[in-house]
Amino acid sequence: MGVKSDGEGRRIESLLAAKKSLQNTLEKSRDLAVALEKTGPRLEGMSRRLPELEAEVGPMRNHRKILFGIGGHIDRAVGPAAELLKVFNAVHGLEKSLLSDPRSDIWGYLAVVKRLEEALKFLAENCGEATQWLQDIVQHLEKHGVGERNHLPNLKKSLENLRALQAAEEEKARLDGGLLQAALDKLEGEFQGLLEEHTVALKPSPAPLPSERPCIAPSPLPGPVVQKLQAILERLTVNSRLDRCLKIYVELRSANAKASLAALGLDYLATEIVSVENVEAYVARWTKDLEFAVKHVLDAEYRLCGEVYEKIGPDVWVGCFGQIALEAGMLGFLRFAETVADSKPNPIKLLKLLDIFDGLNRLRPDFNKLFGGKACYEIQNRTRDIVKKVIEGSCEIFRELMTQVELQRQRPAPANGGVPMLVSFLVGFCNQLLEDRYRPVLTQVLVIERSWRRERFQERILTEGIINIVRALEVNLDTWCKSYEDPVLSHLFMMNNHCHFYVHAKGTKLGDLIGEPWLREHQQYKEYYATMFFRDSWGKIPALLSRDGLITLSGGRATARDLLKKRLKAFIEAFDGLYRKHATWVIPDKELRESISHSVVQALVPVYRSYMQNYGPLVEQDESPKKNAKYTAQDLEWMLGGLFQQTSQKPMNGTAKFNRAVSLDPTNSPMNGNGKANLLRTSSAVI
C-alpha cells in the first residue's frame, strides 16, 4: 500500500507540471495573437513598399554579376603586375653593388650586371602586356559604371602615361633609373684601366752588340687579364658599347706599338731623298727594322687582338688590328720604300731595290697573314705598288748597264794611264750581283718581270748579261788604248787594266763565271804589257851609260872625260824626261807597282852606281862636278821608288764612285720623250 501511494504521487506531479506548461503556452498564444494584431499593419506597409525595394536592388544584382564575371581577369592582371613590382624592387636592391668599384671583384660585379640585364629584360618584355591587361580591366569597369568615380579616371590616366613611356625607346633605359648605364660606364673604366696597367711601352735590351739590332720582346697580356677583358667586352657588346671599347683599345695598343718602334730610332723614315746615296746606309737598317716591326711588334698585336676579341668575331678584331697597324706607323715604312723606288736610277740603287724586294719577299707570309683583311686595304695596295716599282726599276737598271758601258766608250781614256773608274766600279758591281746575297734575288726579280711581259725566262739571262758587260768593258779598253798618242802610256794603261781584271776577278763569283782561261789570258796580257812598258821606256836608259871608248890611256884623260860627261848628260836628261812624265802616271795595284819599281831600280841603279864608281873620279876633277853627276845612286833609287803612286783621295761610297765615273744629267727625266729609259747620260766628265 505504501508502494501504491508513491506511484500515484508521481502521476499527480506530472499532471501538475503538464497543467502549468499548458497554461504558459496559452499565455504565449495570447501574447502572439496580440503581437500579430499589431504586426499586421506593418506587414501591409512593407507589402506596399516591396516593389520599390525590388526596383532599387535590381542594379546591385547586376553589378554583382559583372564583378563575379571579371574577378578572374582582375586576378590574372594584378598577379603579373605584382611580380613586376617585385622585380623592380629587386633591381633597386642591386644599386649598392653596382655603384661600388668593380676592380675589387670584377667577376662578381659582372654577375650582378648580368642579373640587372635579365631583370630589365623581364620588365621590358612584360610591362607592356601587364599594362594592357590592367587597361582592359579599367575600360571594362568604366563601361559598366563599376568602381568609384574618382579612382577610375586617375587609374586610367596613370596607365596612359605608363604606355607612353614604354613607347619611347630612350625611356625604356630608365626602367632602372639609369643604374645600368652607370654600371656600364664603370665597366668601360675597368676595361681601360686593365689595358693601361698591362700596356707598357717596351724598351730595347741594354747594351746590344754593334752588329745587333735592339731586341724588344713584346709580351702579350697575361691570360687572366685577357679573360677579364673578354668578359667585360661581352657585357659591353650586349649593351651596344663595342665601338667605344674598340676606340679605347686602339688608342692604347697603337700608342704602345708606336713607342716600341720608336726605340729603334725611326727618324730616318722621314728623310727627304735627293739621291740614293743619301739613304744608302738606311736601306739595310730599314729591312731589319721592318722585319722587327712585322714579326714581333705587329704580330704580337695581331695575336692579342684575336685573343681579346675572339668571342666578338674575326671581322671585328681584324679591323681593330688594321687600325693599330696604321696608327703605329706601318705606312711610314712603306713611304720610305716608295721614296727609294722613286729616286733617280743608278746601279747602286739596283742593290738597294734588291734589298727592299728581298726584305718584303721574306715577309710576304707575314704580310698576307697580318694585312689580309679589308681594314688593311691601304697597306695591301701600297705594298703591291712598291713591289711593282722595285721589280720594274731593278730590271730597267740592269738592262741599262750594257748601254751605259757602250756610251762611255766615246769618252777619253784616263790621262794617267790608270784604271777607269767605270771599270773598277762595274767589276766590283758585277761581283756583288753574283754573290749569294743578290744573285737569287735578282734572278727572281727578272723571272717575275718576264712573266708580267709574258716572255719566256732564260735560265742564263743574268749570267749572260754580266758576261756581256765584261766583254763590253774589254772592248772599251781596246778603244781607249788606241786613243793614246804615247805608246808607252798605252802599254801602262793596258797593263793596269788587265791586272785589275785578274786581281779583282780571281777567286770571286765573277772569276768563276768567266772561267780560268779568261783569267790566265788577263794575267798573260798584264805580263806582256809590263814587258812592253819597261822595254819602251826605262829599259832604254841603261844603254846610255856605255863604256865603249872610255879606256883611260896616258894623254887621253881629257878626251875620256868629255865622252863621259856627254854620256852622263844624255842619261840624266833621259832620266829626268821619263821621271817627269811618269811622275803623273799611276799603277793602282800595289804589288804590280812595287814589281815595276823594283825592275826599274834594278835596271838603272846598279848600272849607274858601277858607272860612277869606275868613272866618277874623272867627273869630280871637272870644275863643276855636280853639273855632270846630278844624282847619286841613292837618289835614283829613292826617286824611282816613289813613282806611279796614286794621290790620296777622300773615300767614296759606291754611288759617288759611279757618279764620278759617269755623269748624270740632273736636268733630264729618267725617261726620255720616247719612253725609253734614259738612266745615265754621258758628258765630258773625266773618267
From TrEMBL:
Coiled coil: 12-39
Swiss-Prot/TrEMBL GO biological process terms: exocytosis; protein transport
Top-rank taxon: Eukaryota
GO-annotated cellular components: exocyst
Record's keyword terms, sorted: Coiled coil, Exocytosis, Protein transport, Transport
Region Disordered, residue ranges: 664-687
GO molecular function: phosphatidylinositol-4,5-bisphosphate binding
Domain Exocyst complex subunit Exo70 C-terminal: 285-640
Family the UniProt entry places it in: Belongs to the EXO70 family.
PANTHER family, per database record: EXOCYST COMPLEX PROTEIN EXO70, EXOCYST SUBUNIT EXO70 FAMILY PROTEIN
Functional summary from the UniProt entry: Component of the exocyst complex.
Designated name of the protein: Exocyst subunit Exo70 family protein
Species the sequence originates in: Wollemia nobilis
